[in-house]
Amino acid sequence: MAEPVVATYSIVAGDLDAQQWGVAVQSKFLAVGSVVPWAEAEVGAIATQSYANPRYGPDGLALLRDGKSAQEVVDALTAADEGRAHRQLGVVDGHGDAATFTGEECQDWAGGRTGRCYAAQGNILLSHTTVDALAETFEETPERPLAERLLDCLRAAQAAGGDRRGQQSASLLVVERDGGYAGLSDTLVDLRVDDHDAPIEELRRLYRLHDLLFGQTPRDQWLPLDDELRREVQERLSRLGYERLEDWAGVANLEERVAGAAAIDPVVLEELRRAG
After folding, report:
1. In this structure, how many other beta carbons lie within 10 angstroms of the beta carbon of residue 148?
2. Which end of the chain, N or C, is less packed with Cβ atoms under 10 Å?
3. 3-state secondary structure at position 111
4. Distance between CA atoms of 64 and 59, rounded to whole angstroms?
């Protein structure tokens, strides 16, 4: 049997209002994001761990796509798998229904918990408090964006005890139809920390950078480019060696936050002021 994705906890979740689905995971395992998390826009999300069966990801999403419920997916995947006693699995379907599975030979402490729009699970943990923290943090933060809720869940779980064997890697995956780069991808967030002493905090740092570069400020919060502000922007661009805001933004990886000449995203303005 392959090496286990050891000392792992994860939360699989959906936000039906935002039509987003995602997975957050932390493990004492190299590059956990390459194995555990799977998600498809408007279909659902899956985490496969313990002695992980990576086929659970694509096969489970195919079953969800065919209309199977989260519990039906768990039942079908595990029934067909002779190694199911060592597996752990969490699924949330496109309707927000959830299911979790922990094989009887997963290493203690191992277990899971479900609620509306989430499945939390972990193995080789100090106790059930880690999974409880995942679940309770998710339940208590319905007003926050899904990606931020999932990051908060990881931090709370680690504070509650976390992995018995420590930390190494973490991952955050969130999907939304046409919600990714340039509206041409369904991958809203896909961040991985493959090997780090404090992977959850590093993942949070990467998410802040991701949000800076690819987040969206509501258009009613953009600042009108009146004569004074337009003059300031042009002077700062000139000092940096640019004529157009679009050219500087492209170099600064802020092109997704520039649209038209009538107004400017305050995030872009702040970064421009920092630069020049």
Report:
1. 15
2. N
3. strand
4. 9
